[in-house]
Amino acid sequence: MTTIPSEAALCVYCGASPGNVPEFQAAAISLGQALARSNRPLVYGGSSKGLMGLVSSSCLKAGGEVTGIIPYAMATSGEGTGEDYEQRGRNKTIIVENMHERKMKMAMLSGGFIALPGGYGTLEEIFEVTTWSQLGIHCKPVILLNVNNYYDPLRKLVESAVASGFIRPSYAKLLTFVDAPADREQPIDWGQAALEAFDGWYSPIYQGLFQWSKL
């Protein structure tokens, strides 16, 4: 059984926009605070805007350690700047050449991935690291926080791909969905729920499709 050390850094994927319901922002803040409380470093895309800015600033304010990874083109346009990003010590920004290097670096530094709601970039990142587990490039959890049922359509898409013979049933389990209680009046701490899903994760497959080695 494959598990991930509890002290491993966690990579958070999420939007550079805040979304249009307060539950999205509250979940980002909750996740940042939970990472700090558990002494798990945060690795993320380096933006100071939207949900990315909220999860990173809340982690920093709670005493957490943050590493932002951002391409040069974005850094020079003003991304990754602001009040919270002037803090020293537990906040680090790594500037890379392009988006491909950014995603590779984020994956290399992290023991797992947690996704809040986001747009095209977030969805692409989710599927890429999930594909890497399927292929055997790495074996790490990919946890989706289904805030306000945001990821219900994605879950249905995966189920459709399984039913249509494009994804093996065991590989569908490479994505872990964290849902709110059925009783909408019952509160949920999204940060704590994410960490519980991470701690309870084990690989649903014994090995990926290929054995990767250097030539």
TrEMBL record:
Gene3D superfamilies per record: 3.40.50.450
One Gene Ontology molecular-function label: hydrolase activity, hydrolyzing N-glycosyl compounds
InterPro entries in UniProt: LOG, LOG_fam
GO cellular component: cytosol
BP terms from Gene Ontology: cytokinin biosynthetic process
Protein name, as recorded: Lysine decarboxylase
Organism the protein comes from: Dendrothele bispora (strain CBS 962.96)
